[in-house]
Amino acid sequence: MKTVMITDNVYKDLSNVKGEKSFSELFEELLKSARDSKAYKMELFNSILGTMTREQADKTLVAIKRLKANFKVRL
User: Fold this and answer.
1) What is the DSSP letter of 62?
2) 44: which residues sit within 8 A by CB, 6+ positions away?
3) Distance between CA atoms of 75 and 73, rounded to whole angstroms?
4) What is the mean pLDDT of each run of 10 residues along the chain (75 residues)?
5) Which residues contact 41 (CB under 8 A, 6 or more apart)?
6) Structural domain for 54, as ranges
7) Is 21 part of a structural domain of the chain?
8) Angle 8-18/23-36 helices, nearest 10 degrees?
9) pLDDT recorded at residue 23
10) 3 part of a folded domain
11) In 3D, which of 4, 51, 57 has the Cα closest to residue 26?
């Protein structure tokens, strides 16, 4: 078990939202909701794969097109 410090205003807001649930249950629901959001998933995806600047993306596309143009398949 851990102790978390929050402001009085946040405590009041959370108390109003939680109803009969414990604060731990409320936090679990809020975290699950946040994890399920598209923004969270995109942030996680970007943190795993990294992000490119527009210039890096353009250079990568040029390199891919060049590879495709020079690629030959034998049948």
Assistant:
1) H
2) none
3) 6
4) 91 91 91 84 74 78 84 66
5) 35
6) 8-70
7) yes
8) 90
9) 92
10) no
11) 4
